[in-house]
Amino acid sequence: MGLTVQSTGTGALKEMFEVELVSPDDIVVALAGNPNTGKSTVFNSLTGLNQHTGNWPGKTVSNAQGKFSHGNKGYVLVDLPGTYSLLANSVEEQVARDFICFGKPHATVVVTDATCLERNLNLVLQIMEITNKVVVCVNLMDEANRKKIKIDLIKLSDLLGVPVVGTTARSGKGLNELKDMVEKVAGGKINPTPMQVNYDEILMNAIEEVEPYIQDLVGDQLNSKWIALRLIDGDKPLLVSMDEFLNIKISDDKTLLSKLENAHIELEEDKIYLEDLRDRIVSNIVKTAEDISSEIVSLDNKSNQLDRKIDRVLTSKTLGIPIMIALLGLVFWLTIEGANFPSAILAKGLFWIEDQLTVFFVWLLTPMWIHDILVLGMFRTLAWVISVMLPPMAIFFPLFTLLEDLGYLPRIAFNLDHFFKKACAHGKQALTMCMGFGCNAAGVIACRIIDSPRERLIATISNNFVPCNGRFPTLIALASIFIAGAAGAFSSVAATFSVSAVIVLGVILTLFISKLLSKTILKGLPSSFTLELPPYRRPQIGRIIVRSIFDRTLFVLGRAVAVAAPAGLVIWLMANITVADASMLTHCAQFLDPFAHLIGLDGYILMAFILGLPANEIVIPILIMSYMSTGSMLELSSLSEMKQLFVSNGWTWLTAVCMMLFSLNHWPCATTLWTIHKETKSWKWTWISFLVPTVTGIVVCFIVAQGARFLF
Amino acid sequence: MDNGLISLEKLSLGSIGRVKELITEGVARRRMLDLGLIHDTIIKPLMKSPAGDPIAYEIRGAVIALRSEEASKILVEKAQLN
Asked: Measuring CA to CA, how many Å separate A346 from each of A136, A389, A638?
C-alpha cells in the first residue's frame, strides 16, 4: 500500500541540502548531536529563532536552518536530525551523515549532554571519522554541576584532538566561546587532528585491502579509511550517496566490488561474518568512548539518586497512573478556575470597544448593513473567540510546557506503553498524543518520531481523538454550564471532572481504534520499542511563560482570529440572506436536523461543526450566531446567558453531552488534514483520517443519544 | 538457561547484569548496539512501569525503557555488586 520510507519522510529531509546563502562568503555550520541534548536550545540561542524545545527525545522533527553573524562574518547553521549514531540505521541517520559527508559544511558542531557524556561520545567519534572540522559542545553543564558530575574539558579536548567548549545554552553561557571556536575551525586557524577509533588488527587489515583504491577514487575530499570500513560493513546507502553527490559511478565499479569481496574472504578466514563485523565495529567505537569517558568524567555515586526516587513514585504500580490522571485534572482545574475572571474582564472590555465602534460608525453615517456586517458579524465573533480562548490558553500552555520541560512526558509514555503494545501500536504514540493537546497538526508532525510506517500511520489517524486547544473552550464551556451548573459550590471541580473524563475517553478510543486499525487495514505486529527517559531538568519558569505565551498562545490565537473574522462574515451573510421566507442558515439547519437529531444534536449544531472545519475554535461562536434570529451574537457577558440561549433552543443535558462527544470525535480541522496529506503524501490516508473519527463520533453519539432516550 | 545466562527481563530490580549475547539480527541488533549494549556492558534494571512491562534500565549512564520482547533478546550474566 505504498508504505515506503520514501513516501513518508525522506523528501522533507532532503530539503536540508538546499542551504540558503546570503553571500558566497557565508560559513555553513552543521549542528549534530544525540536527541535531547539541548541541540534545539543551542540552535535557538545561536540564531535567535524559536525552534520548539522540550525535555523528550525527538521533539525536533522538522529541519531548521538559521543565520547568525559573528566577527563580521555571516553563518548559516543547519540543524541536523538528532541521532545516536551515524551508521545509517534510519533515514535520519543517513541524512545527517550525508550532510556532514557531502554537504561540505565548513565546521560541524556536535552537541553533547554533560550528564550522559559517554553515550554521546559515540556520535562524536563517528563524526570525527568523517571530518576533522569538528567542535564538541558539552552542553547542560549546569545540570552536570547540580548532579556533581565533573568533566575535565581540557583533557577531553586533548584526548579527542578537537576543540571542546562547555556550555549552558539555555542561559547563554559559553556560546560566545563556541562561536569563536567555530570561527577558528571554519576559517582554518585551528586545524583539528581528531583521534581515531582504535579498530582491532583484523579490521585494520581488512581496511587496508580496500583503502588505497578508494583513495584513488575520491582523493582527499573524504576520509578513505572511513569509507573503506563503511563499505566493508555493507553500507549500500553510502554507495548510492557517493554516486549522487560525487558524480562518480562507484556503485558498480568492478574493481571496488572485487576488492570488497577479498576483504570479506579474509575476514571469513578469521571466522568473522557480516553480522559479527558490525558488532566488532560498534564495540570498538563504544569501548573507545568508554575509555575516554573513564578518564575525564568523575561521577558522584549519588548523582542520579533524586531522579530515581522521583521516577519510582511517578511510575509506580499503584501511584503511576493515578498521579498522571491527577496531574491532568490539576492542569484543567487551574485552567478552568483561573480563566473565569480574566475571561469576564476581556469580554467586558471587548464589548465596550464594540459600543465605541458603533458610535464611530454612526458618526461616520455608514449604512446600517455595513455596520452590522463589520461590527455585529465580524467583531463580535472575534471578541468571543478572544475572550473565551485567550485566558485558558495562557494558563494551559505554560502549565503543559512546564511538564514538558521537567521531562514528565516520556514518563507518561513509559506508564502507558503496555496499553499501546496491547493495541499493537507504538509506545511513543503517547508522546504524539501529548503534542496533540496543543494542536493536532503539531501532533501529526510529531508522529515522525515513530520509525515504523505502520505504527506512524496509526498514530497519525488516531491523533484527532486527543482534543486540541481549539476544542477545549467548547468542552470547558459546555461542561461548565450544563454539568457543573448543577453542582453548586463545586462547579469548577465538576467541570474539571467532566473534561478529564472526556479526555480519558479519548485515550480509550485512541487505543481501541489503534487496535482496530492493526487488525484490519494496518495489519502487523508491534515494532521494536526503546524509549529514553531523560534526566529531570530544572525548568526555567520565566522562559516557559514567555515562550509558551509568544510561541504557542499567540500563534494559536492568531490563527483562530484569522479564521474567525471571515467566518463571522460568512455566517452573518448566511443568516441574513433570505430565500423563500427563511434564511439560508435555517434552510441548511432544517436539512441537517433529522440526522442530527438521531445523534443527539440539532441541525444548527451539526452545521456549526461543518462550518467549523477551518478551525474548531469557531464552532461555538457559529452556533451562538446561528441561534440568534438576526445572525449576530448576543453580548454574552456570562456563561449563564449562553445557557439560556441554548435552553431556549431546546437543549437538554443530553444535547450538551452529545456535543462534547462529537467535539471529541469528528473530522480533523482543515489545517490538520492538510498536514496529514503533507506527511503521508496520500489522499487515501487523508480520507481515512477524516472518516475514522467522524464515523466513531456518529456511532458514539448515536449510542449515547438513543440509549439515554430509551432509559429516561 | 544452562550456561548461567538469563534473559534481561528476568533480571530482578536492584541486581546488576553483564551483557553476554544479543540473540537478534539486522536493524534490531544494530539499535541495541547503538545503545552501547556490547559484550560485557553493565546493565541495571531500575524500575518497572505500572503494568510491569516495559522496564527501564540503566545503560551507560542513560535510562532506557525496553519492552519485554526486546529485553528477552538480551542475555546477561548476573554480576556481583561492587
From this structure: 50, 10, 11
Task: Please enumerate, as own/partner, the contacts of A370-377 that have beta carbons within 8 Å and a separation of 24 or more.
Answer: A372/A572, A372/A576, A372/A632, A373/A569, A373/A572, A373/A573, A376/A572, A376/A630, A376/A631, A376/A632, A376/A633, A377/A568, A377/A569, A377/A571, A377/A572, A377/A573, A377/A625, A377/A631, A377/A632
Among A55-64, B17-26, B42-51, top mean pLDDT goes to B42-51
User: Starting from the edge strand earliest in sequence, which strands make up the sheet with B42-48, in order?
Assistant: A530-532, B62-66, B55-59, B42-48, B16-22, B74-79, B5-7
Retrieve residue A623's grid coordinates: 452556533
Please give the model's pTM, rounded to 2 decimal places: 0.84
Instruction: For residue A305, list its beta bridge partners.
Output: none
Provide the shortest C-alpha distance from residue B22 to chain A (in Å).
Answer: 10
Q: How many CB pairs under 8 A join A and B?
A: 124
Q: Is A382 exposed, middle or buried (0-12, 13-18, 19+ CB in 10 A)?
A: buried
Q: Is A33 helix (H, G, I), strand (E, B) or coil?
A: strand
CA B14, CA B10: separation in Å to the nearest integer?
12
Question: Mean pLDDT lowest for which of A29-43, A559-573, A659-673?
Answer: A559-573
Strand A297-298 and strand A578-579: the pairing is unpaired
When pLDDT is averaged across residues B29-41 and rounded to a whole number, the result is 87
Helices (H), strands (E): how many in chain A? 31, 11
Which of B66, B62, B73 is closest to B26 using CA atoms?
B73
Residue A168 in this model has a pLDDT that exceeds 60: yes
Q: Report how far residue A601's alpha carbon sits from residue A646's, in angstroms, rounded to the nearest whole number.
A: 12
- ipTM value of the model? 0.94
A486: confidence class by pLDDT, cuts 50, 70, 90: low
- Judging by DSSP bridges, how do beta strands A134-139 and B74-79 pair with one another? unpaired
Interhelix angle A274-296/B26-34, nearest 10 degrees: 10
* A119 contacts B27? CB cut-off 8 A: no
Pairing of strands B42-48, B55-59: antiparallel
Q: How far is CA A189 from the centre of its chain?
A: 39
State the pLDDT at residue A21: 61
Q: Cβ–Cβ contacts within 10 Å for residue A184, how many? A: 16
Q: Are the C-beta atoms of residues A526 and A517 closer than 8 Å to each other?
A: no
Best B8, B13, B38 member to test A by mutation, with max A CBs in 10 Å, is B38
B-chain residues within 8 Å CB-CB of A534? Answer: 63
Check CB contact of B34 with chain A, cutoff 8 Å. Answer: yes
